[in-house]
Amino acid sequence: MPAVTVENPLILPKVDTPDPTTTTPRPVLAVATAPEGYEGEGFPVRRAFARINTKFLDPFIMMDQMGEVEYAPGEPKGTPWHPHRGFETVTYLIDGQFVHQDSTGGGGSLGGGDTQWMTAGAGILHIETPPEELVVSGGLFHGLQLWVNLPAKAKMINPKYQDIHGGNVKLLTTPDGGSILRLIAGELAGVQGPGATHTPITMIHATLSPGARITLPWRRDFNALVYALNGNGTVGEENRPFHMGQAVVFGEGDSISVQADAKQESRSPNLDVVILGGEPIREPVAHYGPFVMNSHRELQQAIEDFNSGRFGQIPAEHA
């Protein structure tokens, strides 16, 4: 872990540390431990934001850390066909393989470092499964699924699918080369990530070497969240401790800081975090299962439309 990296980070473009005399560090408001559970056909997940007050999440709905798990032969699992409406799903695979198919004909195979960005919009059916060869052999599986809300004016747009190959992710580093920043979507220090988003967000997967510190410029109009995939460290100018499976909420300001502890566990030699921010939509949220709308009536309509077959058809070979 992770799949997309470089041996010498110093060859990468550098993100300058913000000038402390002209920026305001964001304070840490909360650190919360993600509860664990199971999803789909039985793969383990951590509900990254389940214990975060929803007022701090907008425009994000939820995020699951899938794995990290080492499957024995015959054990790899996925999800059955299921619907979505009203938001975007972002599946980022760190290790392993996954196959996506949907009712619009979109889809593809994901390997380590790849991202699929699916805009459910007015309605879509999709499935995510391990490929047959992974089921036969077993192996490591680790990834994330993030749900990004859509504003009311965009909830009924046509579905869309984006394949973001790991090789297209923008790799950046800090002035000392102590960290690798993988910019998946949005903008950081004038660099634009490959993911095209309806709701303005920034998504980064950062790997910090032991003892390394990153201080990043952050848009004042965005919220700011950090989630630890593995390792131990501290966050904010107050150096608040956090570790694998914990989410951090930052308050207002225009820079955020994360530091890796000088000593890490042998199974996790670095601190890996996901850094997220987005422009709050500030609209009512009605969330029921795979549907995210603005009102209870719209949820009822989504259920009716799904039951009436208006989300498209499962391809014949899977029906």
From TrEMBL:
Region of interest (Disordered), residue spans: 1-26
InterPro entries on file: Pirin (IPR012093), Pirin_C_dom (IPR008778), Pirin_N_dom (IPR003829), RmlC-like_jellyroll (IPR014710), RmlC_Cupin_sf (IPR011051)
Occurrences of domain Pirin N-terminal (ranges): 43-148
Domain Pirin C-terminal: 204-312
Source species, domain of life: Bacteria
PANTHER family cross-referenced by the UniProt entry: PIRIN (PTHR13903:SF8), PIRIN-RELATED (PTHR13903)
Protein family according to the UniProt entry: Belongs to the pirin family.
Protein name: Pirin family protein
